[in-house]
Amino acid sequence: MTTSHRFSQGGLADQKLVQENVVFSGTGGISENNRSQGFRPAFYDLKTKRLYLSRFTDGRPAPMHLIDGLPQEFVGFGGSSRIDVAIKQSVISGFERYGKFYTREEAAAAVE
User: Fold this and answer.
1) Any residues with CB less than 8 A from the CB of 104 and at least 6 apart, and which?
2) How far, in Å, are 9, 38, 54, 60, 67 from residue 57 at the CA level?
3) CB 95 within 8 A of CB 21
4) Residue 28 has pLDDT above 50, yes or no
5) Domain ranges within the chain, ordered by starting residue
6) pLDDT value of residue 70
């Protein structure tokens, strides 16, 4: 797959997911703190307005945010090697609960 303008250093990647977990540590903005209230890790494409549950590569729901199970058209390579995986800029991480997408901020507020 070739890199295009849709994928950039500012896009979502494993490193950014780790940073988000640090920022929301101790709040309902991370899976381990909101799972008991029915939140499931998910991604949302701001462009298409579609929600995608976080999944393992085999399709099973994942208990945390994983980019491995996202549709192939969302995944690109942000650097010079296949190790530097980037996600389309319009995709954000958050949570699904009862069919609705919540940003990390919204989930944190809902859990308080």
Assistant:
1) 20, 23, 24, 29, 30, 93, 94, 95
2) 23, 23, 10, 8, 9
3) no
4) yes
5) 14-111
6) 86
